[in-house]
Amino acid sequence: MPFLETPQRHDSGIIKPNGGVHSVGELQKRGFISHVTPALLKAEVAHPVAITATLLGLIQPEDPHDPLARQFVPQEEELESFSLAQPDPIGDAAHSPVRGIIHRYPDRLLFNPIVCCPAYCRFCFRRSKVGASAGLLSRKEIERAVDYIRGHEEVGEVILSGGEPLMLSPRRLRDIFRALEAIPHIKKLRIHTRAPITIPEQFSPGLMTVLSGTTKPLTMLIHCNHPRELGETARHVMAKLHSAGITLLSQSVLLKGVNDNLETLTELMRAFVDCGIKPHYLHHPDLVAGTRHFRLSLESGRALVQQLHEILPETHRPTYILDIPGGAGKVSILSDRVQKTEQGWLVENDKGEQFVYDDAD
After folding, report:
1. Most-buried pick from 51, 129, 143, 144 (CB within 10 A)?
2. Can you spell out the DSSP letters for 206-258?
């Protein structure tokens, strides 16, 4: 079955947001940074700049420690050396049999039809792969990805990620859903997204019709790291998604200078529940070049999340997760499968394989 039965001449497949900024020069003109330094220009080359108009409205430029600015505005610290950094920290390439597919676990896989975002997080673990020039997979590449999924009957769940999958036009997303829904062994669909926060205007009646019209259960993992991201506009989008019967889960990253304190994390988890989002994953930062200033030690993170769990009821508690470098899978950091030794942290994946995790850079 062809991926798109009725190609549309004027549908590029991507809806790009209006406004926002895309360079450190624009950030200076808008008052979000005071000077364009050589270091900031190098940071811009290493990882693209894009901040949507909605995010700009949430950032408080007068605050030099603003947690939202820290996530999206380039910083000179991105040039700090980081000896533990890896170009592919969670082993995506080793588990990518065809372009756009990451098949790390037997029963589910990632399908990345788009590899650009409306806003670029400065801590992105795929920063070497995403960017404005990367764009959308071609029609043939998407067909090959769907063919791969069709040929693997052990896969029951497809996770749309990227990039930002909700930059896809409603027509393109609908066509992908239809192709996946036609595969008998696919029982569930999932979307990993930051769109309710970065591009809330994307949730048009057309997109909501596509999202609510899936014939398979749909879950969304909402990426959000600070309670201020969940303003009135984002909450309105969450309410629409919730009313459409879509299951909402959270996905956050523990980031130094953003949310690495008990007060912020407590407020964030409570805000998720207020929005109808079940707290799900709190990720330890991956070993990515240019992100050393975001990292805290595994020991510090573990102590902080243990405190968080003591304060919050079980319904509000996220699972503190480490993605084992190289693509060996996820492990709960508070479980007995993560132990501190003289050689570093000994971690064990679901297969019983053991690895030494070093975060002593």
Report:
1. 51
2. HHHHHHHT-SS-EEEEEE--SGGGS-HHHHHHHHHHHHTT-EEEEEEE--TTT
Q: Which of 167, 147, 212, 163 is nearest to 13 (CA)?
A: 167
Q: Which two tokens stand for residue 52?
A: 């949507």
- Using only C-alpha atoms, the chain has a radius of gyration, in whole angstroms, of 20
Residues in CB range of 272: below 8 A, 6 or more apart: 222, 224, 230, 250, 278, 279, 316
Buried b / exposed e along 60-84 (16+ C-beta atoms within 10 A): eeeeeebbbbbbbbbbebbbeebeb
Q: What are phi and psi of 164, to 5 degrees?
A: -110, 105
What is the rounded distance in angstroms from the CA atom of residue 209 to the CA atom of residue 198?
20
Q: The whole model's pTM is what?
A: 0.94
Each residue's pLDDT tens digit, 230-240? 999 999 999 99
3-class SS of residue 339: strand
Direct distance between the N- and C-terminal alpha carbons of the chain, in angstroms, rounded to an integer: 50
Tell me if 220 sits within 8 A of 207, measured CB to CB: no
Residues annotated as part of the active site: 104-105, 108, 117, 121, 124, 126, 286, 323, 330
DSSP 8-state secondary structure symbol assigned to residue 94: G
Element housing 332 (H / E): strand 329-332
Q: How many CB atoms lie within 10 A of CB 292?
A: 20
Structure tokens at 201: 């205007």
325: closest CA among 354, 351, 357? 357
CB 15 within 8 Å of CB 165: no
What is the sign of the dihedral through the CA atoms of 80, 197, 232 and 317?
negative
Note whether 178 and 215 are within 8 A (CB): no
CATH 3.40.50.1980 matches 81-331: no
Nearest 5°: the CA angle 28, 16, 242 is: 110
Confidence (pLDDT) at 6: 43
pLDDT in tens, 296-316: 999 999 999 999 999 999 999
Q: What is the DSSP string of 275-306?
A: TT-EEEEEEPPP--TT-GGG---HHHHHHHHH
